[in-house]
Write a structure and sequence with these properties.
The chain is of the alpha+beta class. It is 28% helix and 36% strand. It has a domain of 50 residues. Strands 1, 2, 3 and 4 form a 4-stranded antiparallel beta sheet that branches. The longest helix is centred in the N-terminal third of the chain and has 14 residues. The protein is globular and about 40 Å long.
Length: 87
């Protein structure tokens, strides 16, 4: 884990959305907000060439039914190994 990153509190997840267009990133964030309670999104430029990066924190303890079902099903198949593109 990168030392500049903090671990979210129990029951929460930090989400970063990167998209070429701000509207696409906002659409994805809106879908997540329909499934989980979330903080206000924070928007940043993705890189000097353009794009948008949105950050938000999801409260997984306050999930809608479809998300709650998915969370319960995913607990037994969880893969903790980091992906190649993760920081």
């Amino acid at each position: 884990m990168n030392p500049s990153h903090h671990m979210p509190s129990a029951g929460h997840a930090e989400v970063r959305i990167v998209a070429a267009e701000p509207e696409i990133a906002r659409r994805v964030a809106e879908v997540l907000r329909r499934c989980f309670a979330a903080t206000e999104q924070r928007s940043y430029p993705a890189d000097p060439d353009g794009g948008t990066r949105l950050h938000l924190t999801l409260d997984t303890t306050h999930a809608s039914e479809p998300a709650r079902s998915w969370l319960l099903a995913s607990e037994s198949t969880r893969d903790d190994s980091p992906q190649a593109d993760e920081l």
